[in-house]
Design goal:
Two copies of one chain form a homodimer.
Chain A (H helix, E strand, L loop, with lengths): L1 E2 L9 E6 L10 E16 L7 H9 L4 E8 L8 H19 L6 E5 L9 H8 L10 H7 L8 E7 L2 E8 L12 E8 L3 H14 L15 E11 L3 H21 L7 E9 L2 H13 L1 H9 L4 H9 L12 E4 L2 E5 L2 E2 L4 H8 L3 E7 L5 E8 L3 H8 L5
Chain lengths: 388, 388
Amino acid sequence: MKILERPIMPDGFECASVNCGLKDEGKDLSVIVTKEKANAAGVFTKNLFPGVPVVLGRKIIEKGELRAIVANSKISNVGTGDLGIENAKRTAKAVALEFDIPVEDVIMSSTGVIAMQLKIDLIENGIKGLSEVMSKNPVVAAEGIMTTDTYPKAISIKVNDAVITIIGKGSGMIEPDMATMLVYILTDAKIDKADLSKMLKDAVKDSFNMLSVDTDTSTSDTCLILANGLSGDIDKNTFFDALKFACIKMTEMLARDGEGASKLLTAEVNGAKNESEARILSKSLINSPLIKTMAYGADPNIGRILMALGKCNECHIIPEKMEAVINGTIVYQDSNKADFDEDNLRKSISGNKVSITINLNVGSGSAKAYGCDLTQGYVEENAAYYSS
Amino acid sequence: MKILERPIMPDGFECASVNCGLKDEGKDLSVIVTKEKANAAGVFTKNLFPGVPVVLGRKIIEKGELRAIVANSKISNVGTGDLGIENAKRTAKAVALEFDIPVEDVIMSSTGVIAMQLKIDLIENGIKGLSEVMSKNPVVAAEGIMTTDTYPKAISIKVNDAVITIIGKGSGMIEPDMATMLVYILTDAKIDKADLSKMLKDAVKDSFNMLSVDTDTSTSDTCLILANGLSGDIDKNTFFDALKFACIKMTEMLARDGEGASKLLTAEVNGAKNESEARILSKSLINSPLIKTMAYGADPNIGRILMALGKCNECHIIPEKMEAVINGTIVYQDSNKADFDEDNLRKSISGNKVSITINLNVGSGSAKAYGCDLTQGYVEENAAYYSS
């Protein structure tokens, strides 16, 4: 398997995007359509105030088949009552009409401001004529779902005869409990519904579910996979490995483009008592504001690492056995700060990646979490955000 | 009971502070001494990498009696192995010698950089002669324990014949699981050991344990109470009410002076299924970076409130029953944004206090959490921090 230099659409998939008037400028509405019905599965936010598209989407995905995704940015359709439900349904209907497909095969997403109604007339108008301008470039779909992302995100992987393409967005309010903001995985591989659903859950667990930009969990998080089967059968394990690899790559892209982020921060915990504790500890590192500002400031602060691990006080840590590594340099072992070349390490973590690895040596649990540094840019972006 | 305009020492307590050379400038070493042995109790961090003073302090406090506290700033004596233990004991010995008191009646605290050894010679020298310069002004002791605090914190409350004085520090790395950074509560009231211990735990639960500046938990958090009995007996309930009131006032002071903070942020949750859920939900609000930047940016962002509540997906929330209030203005009810005067509310939250109140109407659990906004100042302060 390999990442293609330019993302392409898997066989049978097309997309379009447009500015329909929700945003003052830039695309704000995307559709993705497969010419053959695709097997489909999805995971959604666990937030107790889910958006209308999430509530409806959970029902729509139940039958495991889809023809189209429609997604708008700028307004999230969350906290919008009965009118919100009607508007989401009208969006799907407009797509069904434009592409001449059954309305029950259309799933919708919305991302943006909460507690504001969709401008449904603009959306319906925007959908009209999209079937005439369909593109084979997945970046086109990625453009229409951007909120505070700095660039549209799409990657493609070739695995045997199949292509897996991921289109994603997500920049702040990201600590997914099921998926990240909006991620659409498209493939022409032939995978049956049950396998697709299980593979998606397994891949998400080690990728999007280990991503945190700011500990906050969006009300709209959605991750969908559509497999239309046009490239034929594929070995399941081979496909799953490629799927997980692609999801981790997209996770890194989303982390690196976190709001205000200047670098990718990863935290790997090995030798934990079990996998669950490894996940808690790696998330604690990735989420700590003091670790995040340390990454930004390029300071190898061992104290903050000990603090962030130690605050998970239900986990099993034996300080004497623990080893901490930053960008390949051992910084803590035998209950003490290790001897290391500080200038060299500072130079290394001044780059665009800070990797923390913890070896706990108390068991065999491992996990890796993905995040970003905390900068003035995050504060500026979110303090200036205007909700109405 | 009332807060005194200027803090004073309770009868029998004295303090001193000095620059012993740990910091380039400013006081870095404080002692507090009571002329009569005091009943004492303490609560400490639950972090799995506790500082040496916390490990030793848990033992020292077991007998429930103290004569002196010695505390240094700049170096925390955490992650320092056997030498750290020896240095902490030498600090206590120096105080015992200087004040002619038993070494087992001296408790020590250290706050500052982690994984660095105390400069014990400087500390021992600094302690020499302190008994000659003892002061009745608690601010003197507060000065020696400051790290990133912008001012020394001490308050006194008069309750019947007794005085309760709290000396505290704490600015970042504050989400205590037992107490906040360093808080010393001194009183001349006569309270027996068992009552003192219980009252401290109860008061801390609703005050310092509901404080969060940045979700991070210090390895040195310590809260001690010393009651030397010189003002005689007092009604227990009266004393407890005053103690809790004073602890909440100090909590507010610490929150307001969080690193880079420009305003106090409080989150009160009423009508939760039970007290435990009310605590989880109010902490979730106070800890959310998006709520904290919204407070800074003075935007009444309902979406972020729903998000921060909703991400506690094990709590019981019925969106239709919920009501959200910011600074006295209802902003959300009946599953929808409420009608309110946005300009007026923006003006109000542009001030130095943002209070969020949530009425869940599903039970009778209540809790209130204390925090601060997230500003560029926090990022600057913590990115610039140099750990060696």
